[in-house]
Amino acid sequence: MPTYLVNLAEPLPESLGDELAKRIYYLADGIDAFALVRSEDRVTGVEITTRADADPAGLARRLDHVSRTEVRPQRLTAAAPLWTSPHPPAASSGTFERLRELGAVHEMGPGAVATGRLFSEVLDALDAGVLALATDAFGAEEFRYPALISTAALHKGGYLTSFPQFAMTASCVSSDLDVYRAFVDGMAAAAEPSAGAPPSEDADSPAAVIDRYSRHSGYCLPPTMCFHTYLQLAGRPLPAGGAVVTSRGKSFRFESRYSRSLERLWDFTIREIVFLGDTDTVARRRADFLTAACGYVGELGLAGWVEPASDPFFAAPTVPRRLLAQRLTAAKYELRLPVDDGRSVAAASFNVHGTTFGESYRITLPNGTTAGTACVGFGLERLAFAFFCRHGTDPTGWPAALRARLPS
């Protein structure tokens, strides 16, 4: 595979290296690997390996555009954690491999992991604890949502213009007899390419056949649960006192080659809690739930911390301004939990949106004014993985707060 040294037109400060790295795989199809090139305290370029020959000038153009418009304008400063667990982190390594050996996880493809009884029972027990917080302490009403969400609903909420790199859409074969026949013939002749290789010259791959004969279905795979809730409540007033809605469901984000074990999946499970009402009330409920969640993490004996965060906006000229606004208004906090080899994952986020989604979906208070919203989301696979990294796979050593919720 060819490798290209792509120099930045203007080097970046080392502090922005991670922000640049988060965007490399989205610059162009076919990027297989990359490494930042550093000189002293600057990032001077990127060494990019591609699966086939690429245009170095095109790579340089994309890299400089992202560096100039999205990365360089950011002014990152280290923020003190809002909360730190009283439990110290414990060194761990090889947890995913041990879970795989026990049959607790099975890799099904890039970003897709099946879970067996051991992992699933822990995930469900952890979720039960979060659900109890939502329903018992905050009066949340639980809903179960579809595995599809309309493209129009995601567009209305601004997701497709904020995070195009993550969007995963649902297609269907075009409704035409001739197309169906051509599709069947194409599939009959299709050959799966070998790992890492393009399809043979004599037959298309199944994926290429689908691309040729399919159309957009009008649906996307949901990137999170809250958009379902906004769609459900769209165009009508909230009851007096607002509403609290919780749901658990599969969520999907195209993480490209950033996927890693259970730490970053394309297909994962979220427990979400959405607060709707006047802006002061939903902000207070967000803060109260954050406090309750930190207490729950402590009961689980997990190390971790809560810190200010921002969303991975991409490919829009408004990215730096939106990132700055999030940081200045404390609109987003993340609960980070240690995992293997000194890494950490964002296992939960706590977000307040003002009236952004109330305006987009025309959700109002009883007096007709626009409602405010806030949401809390737990990535359950990440939460469970962090638990195994901390406590291992032997249930006899697990905290009572978790064991009490396991099946008898």
TrEMBL record:
Which species is the source of this protein? Actinacidiphila yanglinensis
InterPro entries noted in UniProt: aa-tRNA-synth_II, aa-tRNA-synth_II/BPL/LPL
Name of the protein this chain belongs to:
Aminoacyl-transfer RNA synthetases class-II family profile domain-containing protein
Q: Name the domain of life.
A: Bacteria
Matching SUPFAM superfamilies, A to Z?
Class II aaRS and biotin synthetases (SSF55681)
Q: What residues does the Aminoacyl-transfer RNA synthetases class-II family profile domain cover?
A: 249-407
